[in-house]
Amino acid sequence: xxxxxxxxxxxxxxxxxxxxxxxxxxxxxxxxxxxxxxxxxxxxxxxxxxxxxxxxxxxxxxxxxxxxxxxxxxxxxxxxxxxxxxxxxxxxxxxxxxxxxxxxxxxxxxxxxxxxxxxxxxxxxxxxxxxxxxxxxxxxxxxxxxxxxxxxxxxxxxxxxxxxxxxxxxxxxxxxxxxxxxxxxxxxxxxxxxxxxxxxxxxxxxxxxxxxxxxxxxxxxxxxxxxxxxxxxxxxxxxxxxxxxxxxxxxxxxxxxxxxxxxxxxxxxxxxxxxxxxxx
Amino acid sequence: xxxxxxxxxxxxxxxxxxxxxxxxxxxxxxxxxxxxxxxxxxxxxxxxxxxxxxxxxxxxxxxxxxxxxxxxxxxxxxxxxxxxxxxxxxxxxxxxxxxxxxxxxxxxxxxxxxxxxxxxxxxxxxxxxxxxxxxxxxxxxxxxxxxxxxxxxxxxxxxxxxxxxxxxxxxxxxxxxxxxxxxxxxxxxxxxxxxxxxxxxxxxxxxxxxxxxxxxxxxxxxxxxxxxxxxxxxxxxxxxxxxxxxxxxxxxxxxxxxxxxxxxxxxxxxxxxxxxxxxxxxxxxxxxxxxxxxxxxxxxxxxxxxxxxxxxxxxxxxxxxxxxxxxxxxxxxxxxxxxxxxxxxxxxxxxxxxxxxxxxxxxxxxxxxxxxxxxxxxxxxxxxxxxxxxxxxxxxxxxxxxxxxxxxxxxxxxxxxxxxxxxxxxxxxxxxxxxxxxxxxxxxxxxxxxxxxxxxxxxxxxxxxxxxxxxxxxxxxxxxxxxxxxxxxxxxxxxxxxxxxxxxxxxxxxxxxxxxxxxxxxxxxxxxxxxxxxxxxxxxxxxxxxxxxxxxxxxxxxxxxxxxxxxxxxxxxxxxxxxxxxxxxxxxxxxxxxxxxxxxxxxxxxxxxxxxxxxxxxxxxxxxxxxxxxxxxxxxxxxxxxxxxxxxxxxxxxxxxxxxxxxxxxxxxxxxxxxxxxxxxxxxxxxxxxxxxxxxxxxxxxxxxxxxxxxxxxxxxxxxxxxxxxxxxxxxxxxxxxxxxxxxxxxxxxxxxxxxxxxxxxxxxxxxxxxxxxxxxxxxxxxxxxxxxxxxxxxxxxxxxxxxxxxxxxxxxxxxxxxxxxxxxxxxxxxxxxxxxxxxxxxxxxxxxxxxxxxxxxxxxxxxxxxxxxxxxxxx
Lengths: 280, 876
Known about the structure:
The complex is a heterodimer.
Chain A: H1 2-18, H2 35-48, E1 52-62, E2 68-79, E3 95-103, E4 111-116, E5 123-128, E6 133-137, H3 153-157, E7 164-172, E8 175-182, E9 192-198, E10 204-210, E11 216-228, E12 231-241, E13 246-257, H4 269-272, H5 276-279
Antiparallel strand pairs in A: 1-2, 1-13, 2-3, 3-4, 4-5, 5-6, 7-8, 8-9, 9-10, 10-11, 11-12, 12-13
Chain B: H1 2-15, H2 17-40, E1 53-54, H3 66-77, E2 82-89, H4 100-114, E3 117-120, E4 123-126, E5 139-143, E6 148-153, H5 162-173, E7 189-196, H6 202-212, E8 222-226, H7 228-262, H8 265-288, E9 293-294, H9 300-326, H10 329-356, H11 364-394, H12 413-427, H13 429-448, H14 465-476, E10 481-488, H15 498-514, H16 520-531, H17 537-550, H18 554-572, H19 580-594, E11 599-603, H20 605-616, H21 630-640, E12 659-666, H22 671-687, E13 695-699, H23 701-735, H24 738-762, H25 768-799, H26 802-809, H27 812-827, H28 837-874
Parallel strand pairs in B: 1-9
Antiparallel strand pairs in B: 2-7, 2-8, 3-4, 5-6, 10-12, 10-13, 11-12
Helix pairs in contact in B: 1-2, 1-10, 1-11, 2-8, 2-11, 7-8, 7-9, 7-27, 8-9, 8-11, 9-10, 9-11, 9-27, 10-11, 10-23, 10-25, 12-13, 12-26, 12-28, 13-24, 13-28, 15-16, 15-18, 16-17, 16-18, 17-18, 20-21, 22-23, 23-24, 23-25, 24-25, 24-28, 25-26, 25-28, 27-28
């Protein structure tokens, strides 16, 4: 099934080259990283760069009939750890996410709050302004759709590295190929997923999920990368559901790292009172 | 001219019998080869048309038919597919199907069904796993404790024990769109719904499922598979088996009866050859011209056979009666053909007219059916007139020794009965006429009671597994037949109420001022609105975008941000099916539909909104309602989409919320029941117009069946009346007399009337096979009248008066008619053993039509001639 992945990640490779991301491979150039190092770097690049972050997200969901739905939201992120070091596990910590919806109009002011825990299930709340209702969302399953898009909640907040067995199956040009198999296969709908991780930036440029029959059914692809405040940052990413023919593209603008965010923002109290200054 | 044609043909057959036979064999083989070669080796003969089967009742309508185009358009709009329904019950277990062992098997069956796909023409076709409905593929929405809402798989893994299995049922029963669909309300059965990408795969998938579930019955599970695509596709397969069994069996019976009547095997073979040749050549032509084998066209051989045999039997019967007299086959055959040529030509033309008239119906398969039978009838006539004399010429005269009816021989039972009939009908014409009048009255009453109805599932016998599955599943669930009612915002550009927009903007500005927003942006937009004509959206969006980009401070930024919210809200007003008033109206429409006894269940957008709203509000029963504002509806739905199956929403509403669909589950696929459901909805909508203008349209296979049936009934009646007139004109022309012409139509009219009267009286539905039989009765019933009247006139001319001619008429001509009727009537009884109901119907009705037409001819015509002889015979 590699052939299916090629054109897409090549395309991303060109993008990476175009933004001039010439990151030095970690450690000495001659020493190949271990699979643990690769997945940690990828995890860091995807979810932990800086101690906090902010971005405006515009989400475009296009169904198989090319009907388009748009969502716009602001994401605020705060890490519990003070470390920003990808080379040891110290960067890894609990995280809090505050997702504030602007559009479409009927979900304006809707807020989704996540407390991601490394050691236990995440806490999640949803605030529905027109019903003035704060709902906790039971943590049982994170592999459900994120507000009707092709992304799962887990794609937004990150899947625990401890949930899968990781195996470096090879490398292809500028990419490490990592095969990931779930340690608890009954709790997920995939049998494995394969990531193409860029060797110098550690951005997982393409991730393909395979179903229990071994067929690929879901593909995440990075469409654009920029260097922002010294961090290689995905600014456009696509998730395709091969079975429904639906695609979601997320574009990130106004990305900012290490922003001053008060821990108090990430509490139930602020669901009803969005912090305007941080959301602009 | 007729005489010339007659002599020419007879001469050719008698002088060059081998040439005639060779021509028949070669032409037939050539046609058959043209059709058979590309069917057997499609690659090598790609330029030719091979056999193509089409069992899709949708094709009863032309591809361009608006209702069909809409059906496809709407199905695509809502991503709806045809469904195979798999039901599971376990009567031996106290918890029914909801026990751990059964659910474990169902879990495996689901996994198995998910991968039933095949590569067909480069496309993956089969079960659409993403939309498959099964306990392990749907979400449960429920309270998760601590005021949280929980989306989790209803059955993520096989339940550990029976208690866990019972919970699967309990959970599903609290979710309206699962209760009565996935699990039965009585808690005994569960159903899987397998959407399929191609209807043509239904039979194959059914067989795979049957194989997988083989042996489940030992554990107490009953597995039922049904759904319209399965019924239709299975019918197609079984239809072929029927064609291969029923038609030859009918031929065998006819052959045996012919043998019984005419003794000589060698002679009796000839009508069978003609029937075979006519059927083969017609089907060959049909396939070679690129027409599909449809349920209708599959019956063509069964219709052609009796007609072909009928012609040949007239000749054999005459030959049998006269050969004993002449003892010279050449002389006998010439004489026989000369006597029969005109009546046989006319019976052929009338039969052709009867079937060709079907070409006037607006139903393509019926058109093809009519046209090709007309061709087949012509071929049957041609080869009867050429082949039979040629064949007889090649028989060694010694082998005919002792053949035929001998003068002075003791008359047979048939002969004596007919002679008696002749006496009674001519002595007591009034008794016959009164009896006929009575029959007509009964017919009229019966016809008044005819119910027009059809249902593809009922094309199978009661005991057929598909019928059984249909009964069991519709007993437990809301229904396996789906009718769809789409509600849509009126097409065309949205209208803008600028004054109302201004008012709402003023209110928004008032609220925003309290929050400290700048006022200039609001004034800017107010000014634009005041100057606007038509749709101001694009211009407003541009101004707001640049305002947001250029905002110098927070007060301005938040003002522009708020204006963006205002504009979005204005634009969302066109999202008709997010408006609470519309959703509440839909909910009432749904309640009205549920009052109809055929409606088992309705799945709809209001159900989704109400269920999610209830779960958001701590699961309280009184919160099972539509929230008060469009935004709250939007937020409810976005919550619903946080599930494993976010795309499920788009089966009920389009992403622009301007089209929605009610899934109406019917427990019966009868057209009649669907018609009543339509009437229920129409009445409700007429009495309770929607709060905002909306159009409504029906679609779905059950609805399509109603539409083509309507067309068929009207079309058949028109075709029948049209061909009745054509045949009458032909009769008047043949007999050169209006009165004789009318007389010839009477047995036909009485036969058709009685047949349809009886259908009405016994409560048999007027369905597709019954409808096309009117054409056959027209073709067959008039045949006997033509023969009888033609011979009666000849006899009267010879004997001088009707009274003196009666014995002659009730001799040989009446015997030919009776033999004919007995042979063909009995010949079609094997069809009664067919497991497919349309074949049974056709069998019993062909037999009835033939017997009834013969009886009507032999009783009514002599009685009427006796009564009308003054006028009839004077006109000559």
